Amino acid sequence: MSDGKLKTGLWVNDRREKDTQPHLKVGKPVEFNGQQYWVSAWISTGGPRGDNKAKMEEQVAKFLSWMATHCGTSPVIQIEVQLADQQQGGHKQMAPPINPDDDCPF
Question: CA of 12: how far to CAs of 2, 57, 79, in Å?
Fold first, then answer.
């Protein structure tokens, strides 16, 4: 983190056996402020309108399998974290979250 940014990548968790385990994870702990952290991520399969969870899980599994096959040893997602007061050009504040109850969110 020499440039003030925390950078890491997430790989497909090929040992995932239950819902409490992440879909994606880092390959090794990430150091931040002198401490080691594991970074994990889950892909939402519930759907905003009560979609069929089993069907969503099946689609996520297919996607992750494809990503693992095509990315090889590279991470499927790369992440960069920096302090908000260090943010420079090109980055814009995100829009407010979309309300899933709205029929037309735009």
Answer: 27, 15, 14
39 is a domain residue? yes
DSSP assignment of 12-57 equals E-TT--STTS-SEE-SSPEEETTEEE--EE----S-TT---HHHHH
pLDDT-derived band at 87 (thresholds 50, 70, 90) equals: low
Task: Mark 70-105 as b/e (b = at least 16 C-beta within 10 Å).
Answer: eeeeebbeeeeeeeeeeeeeeeeeeeeeeeeeeeee
**Which tens digit of pLDDT belongs to each residue from 5-57?**
888 999 999 898 998 899 999 988 988 888 899 999 998 877 666 667 778 88
Three-state DSSP state, 4: coil
Does 105 map to a domain? no
For the chain, how many structural domains are there in total?
A: 1
pTM, 2 dp: 0.66
In angstroms, the CA 64 to CA 75 distance is 12
